[in-house]
Amino acid sequence: MLDTFIEAHYDLNVRDEQGYTGLILAAYHGHEDSVERLISAGADPCAKDNRGNTALMGAIFKGELSIAKRLVQADCGPNLTNNAGQTAAMYAALFKRTEVLKALTDQGADLTIRDSMGNDVQGLSKGEFQTLPAR
């Protein structure tokens, strides 16, 4: 089915009600072949859903590490933030995805960025996180 859409030059960045693109969903659900096909066909790896989360953030959250490593290589910049100010590096730190965190660091991720609650990579990697807005 995916090949049919690609061959028909269908807009691969179309979104559903939550803002999910095909690439975001493929990454989140671990469909590595589909992720590669979509990126190769021109799907935007930097697209954000309605909460500002990217395919990379979803892959990290779900533990889809090979997909996450592939998405780190996309030309999105390592410091994209979601609506809460969280970065992919913060997700990697929180969920102990050390290989992905290293790859993001190698891409120039800023580990000092703080989200809207005041959390940063260092604290999240220790399991420390703030649940109230930073003052």
Furnish the topology, listing elements before pairings.
Elements lengths: L1 H6 L14 H7 L3 H9 L14 H8 L2 H8 L15 H7 L3 H9 L14 H5 L10
Helix pairs in contact: 2-3, 2-4, 4-5, 5-7, 6-7
What's this, in brief?
This protein is mainly α and 135 residues long.
Protein described:
It holds the Pfam family Ank_2. Keywords: ANK repeat, Repeat. This protein is 44% helix and 0% strand. With 135 residues, it is an all-alpha fold. It has one domain: Alpha Horseshoe (Serine Threonine Protein Phosphatase 5, Tetratricopeptide repeat). Helix 2 runs parallel beside helix 4 and helix 5 (65-72) packs parallel to helix 7. The longest helix is centred in the first third of the chain and has 9 residues, at 32-40.
